[in-house]
Structure formats: structure tokens, C-alpha cells
């Protein structure tokens, strides 16, 4: 009986490891029901408490999920499975699925890296020095001050996801619940269970998370909330002034909740920031350079309350130590040399996005994209729409990469579209999808 599951071992850690191996090899498939606790204990000849400990470990690691009397099963998307794994786009097909910025809008990195290298030659960074370049810290803090982000120390991490992971790990423990946007960033939706945390989906509209849904999630025990300030992936939502006020009022009633605000759209979003930071005691604000300066420039600035940033810095010291000061100096050069005009870049993305939303609307297709480089199109048959668009020469991102409980949709990235492409893209989507109702993303 147990052979079909591939589960073995006498100790809890060995049983858990065998289940993980079976999941990784495909012997246990996503969604497959596991043997009842007592049945497995009898088959292995161990105490039921041993199996209970193994299942608890697997649940904390995000490998399985439990539903009371309905038993335990392999998570539909195990923590080891990346939902946004890159898929090959056939030759001749336009790729509007990847989510990349337009290379023509990215600055050349050679001058910035050369300047950073020359600076390092004059003043090499050695062990024991500050993890954050002083000039980068001052420039970042000045920009944050101008955007109304509360005062706080600055740390530098290797991208938004690295920063968010470290903040979550600094405050939460396996089994804790995290309120996340749905639909939302696929990498974050994978990260939460990989940390042993439980994702609580929160519906959003063009203005960001709905206050009532956030309130419900926090009342239900969510210990953290992750919000995208603007250029939300995949919907393009941006938190406006009125919504920010409503969300701050909700958070004020839950001062112990950890708030993480992601501003990865800084430099490409054509709407101002309305920050929620400071509404709770523990908070973090993350600002990435990847979208505006290039995905390979793995750097994000983090600020927050002193305790949060101190915990993140302390754990960072025990791992990589710091993000290369050469990269930090390159970012300083990009910020101070005028290599990028954020207004022009934001306008370029905004013009393409708005044009596509309008063109889809003219064809009876409801579409969303208030900021950033993505447009979200609700559809009734996600798989069919993706297949039909691929057949007609367009590769779009299936909404399953971004959804937990929300309704189907597809994401279109506009960075590769020129003015002459908008009508053709809209016509292809209209032909594949047909009119789709819906005002919210639920």
C-alpha cells in the first residue's frame, strides 16, 4: 500500500524527507491525497506522533497542506515549483508575456560600471566597512523623504524579493498567515509557502487592495500584509490617495501587523506614491532598481522601522554580508548622471499601456492597467485564450501564474509594443477572448 506513495523512514525527519523526494520526482503529484496519519504510522511501524511531526514539518515547509478531516495532500503548487518558469516562445510569435522592461528604455551600464570601478580602485571596500555606500544611502533617503516615506535606516538587498523574504523571515514563523494581493506577483505567491507561511488572498481593484478584504484578513489572524504601491503585477493597480487613507485607517486598528510595501515600479510608474508606511509599528518599504535600470542590476533599497532594518542587516551579515559596493556605486552614477529620465520612461510605458487598454475597450474587452507596463484582461477560458493567441502569433502570460483564488485572466506586457502594434494586439485578444465581464479581479 505505502509503496505507491514512496514514503519510508522511522524518524519524523526521514519520513518528511521521503515525502519531499517523492514530490520532487513526481511520484507524489500536486493535489494528491496523502495516507491518513494513523494509517501511515501503522504501515511504517512508528508512533502516530512521529508521523504528525513529519506532516507538521512538511506543512511548515510548504510541501503539503492540511484540511482537517479531509486529510493532508501535496500542495497544488509545491514550494519547489516556480509558477513563472520561463517558457520558450516559438519562432515568429510576439512575446508579450515575459514581463521585461523595454531594453531601449534602459540606460547603458558600461559608463556606470566603469565609474564605479574607478571609484573602487581609488578607495577599495574591505571587510568590516559599512554595508551601504554613504552616498547611495543619502540619495535614497532624500528620495524617500520627498515621497513621504517615514524616516528610517537604509539597507541594500539583492532585489525586491530578497528584501521581502528577509523582512518576512525577520518577523514571522512557520504557520503564520500573510495577506497578499490576488491576483499578485507570482514569485511572492511562491515565496510565502516556501517560507512555511500561509498566504491569505486579498482582492484588489485599480486602486489597490480593498480595505474590507484587508480588514477581514487581519481579523482572521494575518500577521503581515504585502502591498504593491504602484505598477502592481499583473494588474497595473496603483494605490491612490483615498485608498491609502482607507487602508491606513484599517492598519491603525492592527498596529502589530507587519506592513511591507513594494515599490518596484519606481522610475517606470506614471503615478505618484501614496505610501502606507508608518501605519503600523513594524513596517518595511522596498524600492528596486530592476525595472528602471535593468533586471541584471540586482539591487533594492530597503527602509523601515529601526528594529526591522536592524534584524535584516544582522541576518544579511551572516550570509552574503553585503551587496557589492561596486554595484551600489554604479547605481549612484545612474542616479546622478542623468542617464535616465524617469518622467520620459514612465510616459513611454504609460502611453503604450493606455493605448492598449483603450483599443481593447473599443473592441468590447474589459482590461485594466492603471500604471506600469502590464495590462490585465479578465477572461472566461484562460487556457483556451492563451492557446488561441499563441496560434495567432501572440504569447501572453496565463493568469494562473498570478492567481490564488481570483478569476481567470491573462497578462500582457506592453514594453515590446510600438504604436503600430497596439491595434493588432487588441484585435488578436478580442478575437481570442470575446467580451469578458467584471469590474474587480475576483
| β-strand amount | 5-15%
Q: What structural category arises from helix and sheet content?
A: alpha/beta
List how many beta strands DSSP finds: 15
* Arrangement of strands in the largest sheet: 4-11-10-9-8-5-6-7
Stretches where pLDDT falls below 50 for ≥5 residues?
A: 78-82, 436-440
Biggest sheet character: 8 strands, mixed
Overall geometric form: globular
Share of residues in helices: 25-40%
- Overall pLDDT level: 91
Number of helices: 15
Short description:
With 442 residues, the protein is an alpha/beta fold. The protein is built from 15 helices and 15 strands.
Provide keyphrases for this structure:
single chain; 442 residues; alpha/beta; eight-stranded mixed sheet; three-stranded antiparallel sheet; 15 helices; 15 strands; 39% helix; globular
Amino acid at each position: 500500500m505505502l509503496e505507491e506513495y514512496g514514503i519510508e523512514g522511522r524518524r519524523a525527519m526521514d519520513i518528511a524527507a521521503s515525502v519531499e523526494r517523492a514530490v520532487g520526482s513526481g511520484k507524489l503529484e500536486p493535489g494528491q491525497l496523502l495516507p491518513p496519519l494513523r494509517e501511515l504510522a501503522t504501515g511504517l511501524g512508528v508512533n502516530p506522533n512521529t508521523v504528525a511531526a513529519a506532516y507538521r514539518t512538511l506543512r511548515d515547509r510548504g510541501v503539503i497542506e492540511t484540511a482537517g478531516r479531509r486529510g493532508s495532500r501535496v500542495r497544488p503548487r509545491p514550494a519547489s515549483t516556480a509558477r513563472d518558469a520561463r517558457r520558450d516562445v516559438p519562432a515568429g510569435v510576439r512575446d508579450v508575456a515575459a514581463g521585461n522592461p523595454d531594453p531601449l528604455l534602459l540606460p547603458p551600464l558600461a559608463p556606470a560600471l566603469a565609474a564605479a570601478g574607478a571609484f573602487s580602485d581609488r578607495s577599495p571596500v574591505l571587510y568590516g566597512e559599512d554595508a551601504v555606500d554613504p552616498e547611495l544611502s543619502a540619495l535614497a533617503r532624500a528620495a524617500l523623504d520627498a515621497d513621504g516615506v517615514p524616516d528610517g535606516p537604509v539597507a541594500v538587498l539583492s532585489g525586491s524579493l530578497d528584501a521581502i523574504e528577509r523582512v518576512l523571515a525577520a518577523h514571522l514563523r512557520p504557520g503564520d498567515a500573510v495577506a497578499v494581493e490576488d491576483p499578485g506577483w507570482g514569485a511572492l505567491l511562491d515565496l510565502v509557502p516556501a517560507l512555511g507561511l500561509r498566504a491569505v488572498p486579498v482582492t484588489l481593484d485599480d486602486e489597490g487592495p480593498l480595505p474590507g478584504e484587508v480588514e477581514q484578513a487581519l481579523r482572521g489572524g494575518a500577521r503581515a500584509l504585502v502591498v504593491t504601491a504602484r505598477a502592481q503585477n499583473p494588474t497595473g493597480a496603483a494605490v491612490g490617495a483615498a485608498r491609502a487613507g482607507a487602508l491606513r485607517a484599517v492598519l491603525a486598528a492592527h498596529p502589530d501587523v507587519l506592513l511591507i510595501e513594494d515599490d518596484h515600479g519606481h522610475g517606470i510608474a506614471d503615478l505618484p506614491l501614496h505610501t502606507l508606511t508608518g501605519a503600523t509599528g513594524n513596517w518595511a518599504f522596498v524600492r528596486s532598481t530592476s525595472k528602471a535600470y535593468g533586471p541584471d542590476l540586482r539591487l533594492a533599497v530597503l527602509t523601515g522601522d529601526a528594529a526591522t532594518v536592524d534584524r535584516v542587516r544582522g541576518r544579511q551579515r551572516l550570509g552574503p554580508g553585503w551587496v557589492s559596493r561596486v554595484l551600489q556605486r554604479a547605481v549612484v552614477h545612474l542616479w546622478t548622471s542623468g542617464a535616465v529620465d524617469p518622467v520620459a520612461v514612465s510616459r513611454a510605458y504609460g502611453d503604450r499601456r493606455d493605448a492598449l487598454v483603450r483599443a481593447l475597450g473599443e473592441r468590447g474587452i474589459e482590461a485594466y492597467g492603471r500604471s506600469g507596463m502590464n495590462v490585465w484582461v479578465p477572461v472566461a477560458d484562460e487556457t483556451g485564450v492563451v492557446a488561441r493567441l499563441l496560434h495567432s502569433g501572440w504569447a501572453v502570460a496565463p493568469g494562473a501564474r498570478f492567481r490564488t483564488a481570483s478569476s481567470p485572466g491573462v497578462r500582457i506586457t506592453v514594453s515590446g509594443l510600438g504604436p503600430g502594434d497596439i491595434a493588432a494586439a487588441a484585435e488578436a485578444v478580442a478575437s481570442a477572448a470575446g467580451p469578458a465581464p467584471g469590474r474587480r479581479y475576483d
